[in-house]
User: What shape does this take?
Amino acid sequence: MSRLSFNQITSGHASLADAVNACVKRDVEWIAPWRHKLSAKPAEDARLIREAGLKISSLCRGGMFPAATAEQRSERIDDNRRAIEEAATLGAQVLVLVCGPAPDRDLDGARHMVEDAVAVLAPVARAAGVHLGIEPLHPMFAATRSVVATLEQSLKMAERFGSEIGVVIDAYHVWWDPKLYALIERASGNILGFHVSDWIPLLADPLMSRGMMGEGSIELRRIRAAVDLAGYTGPIEVEIFNEALWRKPVEETVRLCAARFEEHVV
Amino acid sequence: MSRLSFNQITSGHASLADAVNACVKRDVEWIAPWRHKLSAKPAEDARLIREAGLKISSLCRGGMFPAATAEQRSERIDDNRRAIEEAATLGAQVLVLVCGPAPDRDLDGARHMVEDAVAVLAPVARAAGVHLGIEPLHPMFAATRSVVATLEQSLKMAERFGSEIGVVIDAYHVWWDPKLYALIERASGNILGFHVSDWIPLLADPLMSRGMMGEGSIELRRIRAAVDLAGYTGPIEVEIFNEALWRKPVEETVRLCAARFEEHVV
Assistant: This one.
């Protein structure tokens, strides 16, 4: 249980302070805050988390690189510079990157924009002592959230860089991949984070259709064991986008995450 | 336009006779019937289609192989033997395979069941003069419709067999794949069919969320050109699952398919 991290989006309506308190009450040692939940003074957020005795598994999120014009792309990169600063201020080792959709039908063009942006940000991250974790998203989100759609693709990008760039493996996004276990093995040394939830039937909003571990189709324990074997021994984030879960009190949600984590993941 | 084929599911409420008549009126030369729309006497369906002057691009569909027990798997294979017979009776060169979901969380086990079933059916298909087209489905359907989720995976299966087994490429299912164009090139000689529609925002039922060509995110003309280059010169099926489209008169739907096909595909 010492590896369980509560990703804050799992209680999307709770404040950072409420999420932190719920983790403390339920003996969860790690938390992954989201940028839009931070205050205007990340140093104070950092103190709040540190004084509660919690560690930070990652900051969510940077990315969203492709855009129609060079000026817009430059603005996106500037926003990611700020995200790297915030991660450094918080003491977060990892900034998760959700790379963004294409501005038009040209997926390959958008993928080059992602690669160009990561190349610009790599030395910035290294100087700040922050790692950038490229997270492949489920191909269902290729049109709306990320042109990086497979673990193989994110690994190829990460392998071009040093240790400042790696991948984040979210079981929800990659569970369907016929090459999953070979790719996890190949990712050894490049895994910056591991997220769990479960695949349930899609709801009205596919983004909000994740299930609690054990409710769905994903062979979570096998994937977790493969990630372990690949040498990743860090925190495991529970990250569940689900409106019904958001309506529960955050302490109840944290309790449920911990119970299901023990039952279906570790 | 001589390559346009009207996949019957694009007007899901129309009878085979109505779909055939609509194709004739709109000068569409090919049709892809679905098994559940056939009569009890496929020979009569064959005559209906032939006498209307239409050719058949494929029969939809066989597959659905994985099941919890050996008895159930054997029943699925028997159903596919019947589908092969129906295809032969219709004069359809290709039976499309939607391979089916796993009966539990063991995706790899289900994938082996698919491979075993295809190995049993390959000689049956060869003897009947029917080709089996393994269609990878979008990973969004991995839990509900097919454990075959990528073109690479379906190609690896097809490459183990002779010309009686190949792949069917549906742009909706594969457009997001970072390796798409390399895989289409590799598929040269193994492509048994090519389907088009478009990716639009997901609706309440993801299965019924396909758009008309030009409405969505898919770079259709580029994919079509790549399939051409790989040597596939056969019919191109328009296959759109969409309830709003189903409510239109079939002749109107065929007209719309032909117009958008010309505008966005060829």
